[in-house]
Amino acid sequence: MKENRRNFFKKVTLGAVGVGLSNGINAMSAKSYSNIIGSNDRINLAIQGLGRRCSAFIPPIANKKNNVRLLYLCDVKKSQQEKAAIEFSKHLDYKPKLEININEILDDKDIDAVFMATPDHWHTPGAIMAMKAGKHVYLEKPCSHNGRENELVVACQEKYNKVVQMGNQQRSSSETNEVIKDIHNGVVGDVYKAVAFYVNGRGEVPIPKKSVPPEDLNWELFQGPAPRKAYMYDTWDYNWHWYGWDYGTAEMGNNATHELDIARWAMNVEYPEHVSVMSGKYQYKNDGWEMYDTMEASFRFAGNRVIKWDGISRNKHNKYGKSRGTIIYGSMGSVFIDREGYTMYDLKGKKVKENLSDNKESGIALGGGGDLTTRHSVNFFETIRHNEELTSPIKQGAISQSLTHYANIASRTNKSFDIDQNSGQIYDRDAMKLWSRTYEPGWEPKL
Length: 447
Hints:
alpha/beta, Rossmann fold, 2 domains, 6-stranded parallel β-sheet, 30% helix, globular
């Protein structure tokens, strides 16, 4: 890599990566797509984690207008590497290297940025490793496995001054940006409540049993920062989400992240004052699912404002008429917002405005992807180049992520608790015991 090119990517400043809570508007500039970019502007990428989310990154990476080059495909399972290589080969005229160990990639000074799409327990530790190695990071949700990691990933970004985009891609919806700006300008009056919801029909999962890991899976690297334990059958294939807290963050970290982010953004709030939860496992009671599959959470904010979460993982009755979305209530009306656009109503329930998008983005399908992910990724590239500001800077993403951690902690302790609305710290000793986690010795994330 030429020295002048390396210096180009060292010049990113905090001013280019941070935007305020109420300034989330990001219209994709014509410059993003029309510039003839020289080789010094090329961004060399690696993807860490090649599971279901991997294919969502093909369009932004393969589009030559974006001037990026995928140098590495990294996964702890060889068959995942090979599958991803086949998919990318349909769109690229070159072959990325296949790698099992992210450390080998981070040592490569030609790499400018990493797409982090691993299981949850790897997100913050992996992002910190990448930033310390001088890389920018597109960090898929959840940005952290626990509250302490939330603090660490933000502190690391500030220390190493890297572009860190959180993968809550609805922030790249022009319709969502439009209506939230209108909400902030009072279109539905004084906003006092938001209801965020998610509905899915996930089925039974196997009861985990000790088993020999799949032959091509590096179980040691899969566990990474998590304490070592024997492999349990079917853990690697998505069910790590539901098999305890070593790797996953339950449905709150898996999906509530998205809608709670929209609710918090629309209401223009940060940390809540109080959190309470009702949760439990109510479907397929004798299967291997170890988490709650149903949760109702209430986040109370200053000024008598509230965000309600209604999440059902394994009963697909769509009581809101959609599988996911956010409803904002104000003194003069309400708005329904989802990835397809928004619909606004007056106090009598009459539709007064609607703006639906032709863009496609997966709702509850595993892996997902679509136009919003593409825009979100391109915004990441253009922020590295100083052409745009981040749509979802990690500092804001982490505040939204904190809501999911509060709810999980309240569920696990079966307690409601108060929170410092300025610092985000919990006023409860039992709850604070779950603020962090135990790490495998030598894997503790450090700045």
